[in-house]
Amino acid sequence: MPDTGPHTADHDTGPGPGPAPGARTGACSPGGQRGVQSRYHRELFPALHDWERTERSIVGFSGEEGPAGLLGLDQMGHFGPQGCDLVAEAVLAHGGGPLEVCELGSGFGGALRYTVDRITAGGLSVRRAHGVDLVPEHCAVSRSINRGQGRAGMTDICASATAVPLPGASLDVVWVTGSMPHFPASGEVLREAGRLLRPGGLLVLTEEVSLTPGDGEPSEAFRVTHPRGVFFTTPLGERLRDLERAGFADVVRGDLTRWAVALLTDRLKVLRVFRGSVAGIYGAASADLIRATLEAARTEFLAARLSPALITARRV
After folding, report:
1. Largest CB tally within 10 Å, which of 1, 25, 144, 228?
2. pLDDT value of position 31
3. What's the pLDDT at 74?
4. What pLDDT shows up at residue 299?
5. Looking at the DSSP assignment, which residues form a beta bridge with residue 211?
6. Of 162, 180, 184, 160, nearest to 24 (Cα)?
7. 38: number of CA atoms within 13 Å, CB side?
8. pLDDT value of residue 54
9. Residue 282 in contact with residue 290, Cβ under 8 Å?
10. pTM for the complete prediction?
């Protein structure tokens, strides 16, 4: 049952007078998001912090050893590898290379590894891939996996997505695979992406549960599995304005509602069929929470309270 979330990201720049632009839902306190995101993902995916044991379980379930058997199963998320496929397709259509790429909010690195492999298989060379995540434990797990898979071309950077220690105009592609709702100040993240990209560089966002069609909020039932302070939403209009302010043009938003509903419906079926295997890898509590999380997201998509989307933009 392949998949590639979760990812975490954070805004951790000190106290201020109130929520920053983009922090439409939830709180942002100095230093707080690092602990908030770490606790949430540790509760959801405790097995990932014991990677060696989990790796043995994954190999036993997938029947494959090495990177081919581990890429998809190392983590779970809303869109999983299908969302990463959308990112890879956008990068391949953009072209260029050899590429210097970066994922903001890379979590345990599963989406980054998967997406880079898809891009490479599509015929583009990736010279260097950077994963940026605020939570030190996530970066440590990702480094361990990268070493175990012999991925010398990948770098894990433990930093805020609003202040990445890389030179300006040094990257060809920046992407975010599902981490947008974990950014309290998403506008600042987009500005940082604009700083990092070379002129003409590509930004790709998979907006899973991060966009609302207007100023409305997701339901309270959604908040049971997507708590405030961990998940933040932004109105679509505000996202588009933030992209313009960050120096992006040629913004294209692909509405993924029908695609996402069908995907989550299929994924929920698989979770029910293989619940025992998933529980064996992640634990019974995590397996049930994953199911409830996907069900809640699907409900919001159907009710049009959230607008799943693929967004691409070019750095001017």
Report:
1. 25
2. 55
3. 39
4. 98
5. 234
6. 184
7. 16
8. 54
9. yes
10. 0.81
User: Residue 300 CB: number of other CB atoms within 10 A?
Assistant: 21
For the chain, give percent helix, strand, coil, nearest 5.
Answer: 45, 20, 35
**Residue 299: both structure tokens together:** 């409900």
What sign does the CA torsion over 36, 46, 178, 259 have?
Answer: negative
Rounded distance between C-alpha atoms, residue 223 and residue 221, angstroms: 5
pLDDT of the residue at 267: 86
- Peptide bond preceding 6 in cis form (omega within 30 of 0): yes
Residue written as tokens 């692909």? 254
**SS3 state of residue 198:** strand
Secondary structure (H, E, C), 162-179: CCCCCCCCCEEEEEEECC
Nearest CA to 75 out of 135, 133, 145, 2 is that of 2
pLDDT at 9: 42
The rounded distance, in Å, linking the Cα atoms of 268 and 7 is 20
Pairing type for strands 234-235 and 211-212 reads parallel
Mean pLDDT per 10-residue interval, the chain, length 316 residues: 38 32 39 59 52 53 45 57 94 96 93 94 97 92 89 96 98 96 96 98 98 96 95 98 98 98 91 79 80 95 98 98
pLDDT recorded at residue 290: 85
Q: Which residues contact 150 (CB under 8 A, 6 or more apart)?
A: none
Contact 208, 297 (CB under 8 A): yes
Of 129, 104, 69, 79, residue with least CA distance to 192? 104
User: Quick count: other Cβ atoms within 10 Å of Cβ 89?
Assistant: 15
Say how far apart CA 103 and CA 121 lie, in whole Å. 18
